[in-house]
Structure formats: structure tokens, C-alpha cells
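hiii, so i know i said id send this last week but things got crazy w the move. better late than never?? heres the sequnce for the chain we talked about at the cafe, plus the structure i predicted for it. fair warning i was half asleep when i ran it
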Amino acid sequence: MNKAEILIIDDEPQIRKLLQINLESNDYKVVQARSGQEGLVLAASHPPDLILLDIGLPDKSGHQVLQELREWYGNPIIMLSVQNSEADIVQALDNGATDYLSKPFRTGELLARIRSAIRRTQAADNNSTITCGDIEIDLIARTVKKEEEYIKLTATEYNLLILFAKNEGKVLTHQYLLKEIWGYSYRTETQYLRVFVGTLRKKIEENPNNPQHIITESGVGYRFQ
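okay and structure toks below
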């Protein structure tokens, strides 16, 4: 096995067997899960290089599994489904899917999508980290450490922290933050921002009531230092 490890999360044994044969014949290492929960456990215990995730799972929807994975997992996730509606595809991509294929799919196309997704990940700068005082953000692995301890963030908390860190020292207005994280239609929903800034402070600040990183600029927004 000289390439990547791929986790298949699919409840159909025929599909898993077909995928395993084709992937292993192309030098990929294959791990299989029959349910969403089993897939989450396997991904957490040994994060693969790529995940093939079916939407129709017996215990929880693939969309839910995708959202849970994206709270911490940064490698490619390709969704597989018999559904081909635009709304379903948009939901998957909005929730963080790297790509989407409808069943039945051609093996050659799937392999090409896998190669492309892994190539983009490997081409990224492996030294892409942001360090702000005692906080270190790995942009490739999508992990955050504070004083060498990993901090578990939700996808929204992570995206908010990245936006702050990339604009260190700059005052970011409420409207700008809301538009960048939630979209233009949420630019007046300041309560969203207060809630997530509060939860983020609890995770990265020594004393959330006296924050040293996320500083409130009264009536304007926040500044990260």
C-alpha cells in the first residue's frame, strides 16, 4: 500500500466490497464501517486520508455524520448517494463535503475524484500554521492547540477563530464577522456572534470574563490579539 488510507462509511455490503476491490487494486488502504457511529469511531481512532461517506445510513443520516466529522476532521470527504437533488448536493457541500457523487457511479470517475482531492491536500503547505501567543492553529489538519493541549472546536468556532487570527490586531465589525461566517442575510443577527464569541472564549481564554485574545471593541466589534 503506497498511497492513502480511505475509510468507507456505507451500509451496503455490495458497495463496500466493490469499492474495496477497486481501491486496493489502485494501492489504497481500505477501512470499512457499516454505520455512521462506527464510521465516527474509526475516523476518530485513526484519521484516514479521505472518507467516502454514504448519505443513507441506518443509524443517522450522512449529513449528520458529515457535520460531526467536520467539527474536527479536515481531510477530504466525498459524499455518495442515490439521491441527486440539487438541494441535497448543496446541503452536503455547505456542510463541508469536498465532493459529491451519485450512485451508480463509474469507478474511473470516483478514482479521479479521489486522486484530485488527495492531491489538493498534499499540495498544501504542510507548514501552514498560525501562532498567536500560546495558541497554534494548523490550517492543514484544522486543529487548534493552546499551550500544546488540543482544543476541540465546532466548525463554526474554528472558522471564527481563523478569521480572527488572520486579521490579528485589526478591529473586525459585527457586520463583517456575521457576513463572513454566516452569510450576508445574517449581518444584523448580532446575537449569533455574541453566543459563538462567548463559547470560543471559554475554550481559548484563561479567564473568559477577562479575555486576553478576543477583545471587545464596544459598539463596533472585536479585535484579536
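btw The chain has eight helices and twelve strands. thought thatd interest u
miss u guys!!
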